């Protein structure tokens, strides 16, 4: 009986130790819905950071970093709130990478993360609405605001002598913010917007909307929506109806799923923009690491997601525990100068410096992340062009 009790006690102690030897950073993504073809490589970018951290000793005294996931569906605010609630209150994560779509990030933050004191770092929520959140310094992002991307898209089209456009945008924070920024710059710089119409996502037929958009006479259609949602249907029906000869879009449209659904011939020459990566050492390192695990380093927001996960893990290590309290301050500490530079993959080095009481400054796969007072970062925008059935990067925009 004593042996049985001793065995039971040892087993219980082992289970308790195992339970304590796990730190959770959640991933909140659009695994279904309008960006389901874009989400897998974004998730894989974060998972790459997790695997490197665990391979190099994990957190603290060897605790394993785990990344439970939850699906926001991108557009359903209730689903986003419920998904975040599960991560915050059931999985008891310390922090969250995500969400991806802006509406999902806003809903998740307001209804779960902020009340729970959980830091969120989005690698893909680009709408200006994120800047305006009353978030108690809990919501950050490793991608720049659409206020800049909209401006760059406008200047790009004008530089190609596209002097008039019709614009349709998905009726949410992402679409509205991007459309407003685009129109303001495009018209200020001499372009003509012949129509600027919101549309609701999830419909099977947009032919009436396309009729209104084409009635202004422009042959150029700018679609600010999602590759696996309304954007896909609108482009297909616009092409089938022969209403426009030139298509353009932004980051939500840049994905292989769009080309597979609509057709490479139909989209040949389509112009788009997406957040890019500056020419920094971390970018080349990420490219090599991603290719080793068959992750496309050019996948939209993959490098930003890697940085979000790595930064949060550094912040947890800097904070000294898996407590949520104090994590936002720790995040700013590890992301900002001064401090010894930490590059992607250099977890062991960072961990030792933190243990020695030294300051560190993470310089990431997608650039420096000197968060401003709103948790935003500066960024660069890349031109994308559909050539021979795929989106091809044509370089950084600098107007």
UniProtKB/TrEMBL annotation:
InterPro entries: ANF_lig-bd_rcpt (IPR001828), BCAA_transport (IPR051010), Leu_Ile_Val-bd (IPR000709), Peripla_BP_I (IPR028082)
Any one Pfam family match given in the protein's UniProt record, by short name: ANF_receptor
SUPFAM superfamilies: Periplasmic binding protein-like I
Subcellular location: Membrane
Keywords: Membrane, Signal, Transmembrane, Transmembrane helix
Signal peptide per UniProt: 1-21
Protein name listed in UniProt: Branched-chain amino acid transport system substrate-binding protein
Receptor ligand binding region domain residues: 45-378
GO cellular component assignments: membrane
GO annotation terms (biological process): amino acid transport
């Amino acid at each position: 009986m004593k042996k049985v009790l001793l065995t039971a006690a040892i087993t219980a102690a082992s289970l308790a130790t195992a339970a304590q030897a796990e730190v959770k950073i959640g991933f909140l993504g659009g695994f279904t819905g309008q960006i389901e073809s874009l989400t897998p490589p974004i998730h894989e970018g974060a998972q790459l950071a997790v695997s490197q951290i665990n391979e190099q000793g994990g957190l603290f005294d060897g605790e394993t970093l785990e990344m439970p996931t939850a699906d926001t569906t991108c557009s359903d605010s209730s689903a986003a709130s419920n998904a975040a609630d599960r991560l915050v209150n059931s999985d008891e994560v310390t922090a969250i990478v995500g969400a991806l779509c802006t509406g999902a990030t806003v809903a998740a933050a307001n209804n779960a993360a902020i009340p729970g004191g959980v830091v969120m770092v989005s690698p893909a929520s680009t709408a200006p609405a994120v800047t305006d959140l009353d978030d108690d310094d809990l919501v950050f992002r490793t991608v720049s605001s659409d206020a800049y991307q909209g401006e760059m898209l406008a200047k790009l089209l004008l530089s190609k002598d596209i002097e008039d456009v019709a614009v349709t945008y998905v009726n949410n924070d992402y679409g509205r913010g991007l459309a407003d920024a685009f129109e303001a710059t495009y018209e200020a710089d001499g372009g003509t917007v012949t129509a600027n119409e919101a549309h609701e996502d999830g419909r099977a037929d947009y032919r009436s909307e396309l009729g209104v958009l084409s009635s202004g006479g422009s042959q150029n259609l700018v679609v600010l929506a999602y590759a696996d949602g309304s954007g896909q249907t609108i482009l297909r029906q616009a092409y089938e109806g022969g209403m426009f000869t030139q298509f353009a879009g932004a980051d939500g449209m840049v994905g292989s799923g769009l080309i597979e659904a609509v057709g490479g011939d139909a989209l040949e020459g389509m112009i788009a923009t997406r957040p890019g990566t500056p020419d920094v050492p971390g970018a080349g390192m990420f490219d090599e690491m991603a290719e080793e695990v068959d992750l496309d380093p050019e996948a939209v927001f993959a490098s930003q997601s890697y940085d979000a996960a790595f930064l949060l893990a550094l912040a947890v290590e800097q904070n000294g525990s898996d407590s949520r309290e104090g994590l936002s301050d720790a995040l700013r500490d590890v992301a900002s100068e001064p401090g010894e530079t930490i590059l992607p993959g250099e977890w062991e080095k960072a961990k030792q410096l933190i243990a020695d009481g030294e300051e560190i400054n993470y310089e990431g796969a997608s650039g420096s992340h000197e968060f401003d007072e709103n948790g935003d970062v500066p960024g660069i925008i890349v031109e994308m062009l559909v050539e021979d059935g795929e989106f091809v990067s044509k370089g950084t925009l600098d107007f």
